Amino acid sequence: VKVKIPFGNKYLDAIFSVPEKKSTYGVILTHGAGGDMNFPHLLSLAAYLASRGVLCLRFTCKGLNVAYRTKAFKTVVEYLKLSDDYKLYGVFLAGRSMGSRAAASLIRQLSQNDDDDDDFIRGLICLSYPLHRPKLQSKLRDEDLLFIRCPVLFVSGSADEMCEKQLLEGVASKMKAPKKIHWIDKANHGMAVKGRTTDDVMEEINAQVFSWLRENIELEHK
């Protein structure tokens, strides 16, 4: 289902992947610095989740400024929260690369607004989180991650040139949030692995995301 979400004087293009049965939880998904919501990895994940009963809303926001992308993400969250068509108990924010930075930044912002005792946002999924620029490991983009309290899943390539394995594990050990890292063996930042097809890698990523979601949704209902 295609929708246009008002954003300032513009609109954000977005698409709902709707499960056959009514969904109680959703995932909001966005792309990295390049590409848009039709990036193959996002299409694959959205279809996978919807086929397993999780509503997925993916959107395009082309800005290369993280603050702008964060604002767009907030608009999409509010849109879904107020939606009459889809009544959800909660959503998980997910992004690839820069999109995951925007999601993390938004969750930190919302958690710092004391008036916002809102538990609509249940967790964060970071696909290829860009922890540092290539070859610039001294400047970590970890400030938002350290403030987050909700569960976080990282799915990263062990050969990601923007997320050195030891550095992410170090940041994770300092995080207050419940977190899990799933390493895709020998994958680069674009999740390409020599000798494996894209579909094969996506199957691994999608299954990890779904099983983590299920664990976190089940914990809520115990």
Give the uncertain stretches in residue-range form.
none
Distance between the termini: 32 Å
CATH fold-level assignment: Rossmann fold
Supply the CATH architecture: 3-Layer(aba) Sandwich
CATH top level assignment: Alpha Beta
The profile of the biggest β sheet is: 8 strands, mixed
Whole-number total of structural domains = 1
Query: Order of strands side by side in the largest beta sheet?
Result: 1-2-4-3-5-6-7-8
Domain KANL3/Tex30 alpha/beta hydrolase-like: 27-211
Pfam family, one: Abhydrolase_11
Protein name: TEX30 protein
InterPro entries: AB_hydrolase_fold, KANL3/Tex30_Abhydrolase, NSL3/Tex30
Walk me through what this model shows.
It holds the Pfam family Abhydrolase_11. It comes from Tachuris rubrigastra. The protein is an alpha/beta fold and 222 residues long. It is built from five helices and eight strands. Strands 1-2-4-3-5-6-7-8 form an eight-stranded mixed β-sheet, with helices on both faces. Strand 3, helix 1 and strand 4 form a beta-alpha-beta unit. Helix 1 packs across helix 5 and helix 2 crosses helix 3. The longest helix has 24 residues. The mean pLDDT is 92.
SSE blueprint and pairings:
Elements: E1 2-7, E2 10-17, E3 25-30, H1 40-51, E4 55-59, H2 66-81, E5 90-96, H3 98-112, E6 121-127, E7 152-157, H4 165-174, E8 179-184, H5 198-221
Parallel strand pairs: 3-4, 3-5, 5-6, 6-7, 7-8
Antiparallel strand pairs: 1-2, 2-4
Give a brief outline of the structure:
Helices cover 35% and strands 23% of the residues. The protein has helices at residues 40-51, 66-81, 98-112, 165-174, 198-221; strands at 2-7, 10-17, 25-30, 55-59, 90-96, 121-127, 152-157, 179-184. Strands 1-2-4-3-5-6-7-8 form an 8-stranded mixed beta sheet, with helices on both faces.
